[in-house]
Amino acid sequence: MLAPISSDTDSRKVSRVAILGIVAIVAILLVAAVLLFVNLPDANAFNARVEQIFVENDLTTQAEIKLLEILAQSGTSFAETLTSYRMVIFVLLVFATALLVAALVFLVTIIALNRRMSEIEKRGIEVSSLLISRAENTVYLNNMEFKLTPAAIETLSVLAEARLDDDVMSGAEIEAVISGRNASDCDEAAGATRIKRLRDTLGNQMVSELLVKNIARKGYMLSCPRDVIKMV
To answer: What is the pLDDT of residues 125-152, one digit of tens each?
Structure first.
């Protein structure tokens, strides 16, 4: 019961880190946006300055009035440009926030998946049922169906029978049982080749590597409880 509790605790920690990270990102960008918009010049500052010039000076000639009109038009263009810049900056800040939040979520998800995979590798695959059908050349692993070759079925059957007896079989012993010869006359590499072909036929690398355990200097065995194995 300790493993699920530890897993739940890790999940809560990862979720807490993700939430805190998202809040921190939003808060930092919000502060940056506020400071940026506060320090941007007023869009009407140019027009206000032109108006001040008009009030403080007695402009009577046609050239002076024309110049003032040009300045007023320039101020209007400046205000429109600055307004568009504000909108662009706002959109970029929203886009940056979304990207950073998405990147953080993906990072946390990857970390959580890596931890989960590490737990699976440490504990091994949890097999609730293992049904081997020699007639159909099929194995049912946790209700997942795998079509195997006759040679792969023979190899898996030998491993299953050995697991029922709590035996660890070397490559030479596996080859001896299948070929009907003495183990002393069989090559260790031949049995190892059968194990490799069995794993290749299972296809799913994680399932095959965790189901068929390689015990150093001893041999091979199935990493599943004896009472879940059935052979027909």
So the answer is: 567 788 888 888 888 877 778 788 888 8
Single-letter amino acid, residue 178: I
Pair (43, 119) in one structural domain: yes
DSSP 214: E
Mean pLDDT of 195-216: 73
Looking at residue 93, its amino acid is L
* 43-51 contacts at long range (C-beta below 8 A, 24 or more positions apart): 43/78, 43/79, 43/82, 43/83, 43/86, 44/75, 44/79, 46/74, 46/75, 46/78, 46/79, 47/72, 47/75, 47/76, 47/79, 49/75, 50/75
Q: How many domains does the chain have?
A: 2
| Residue ranges making up the domain that contains 7 | 2-123
Amino acid in the structure at residue 41: P
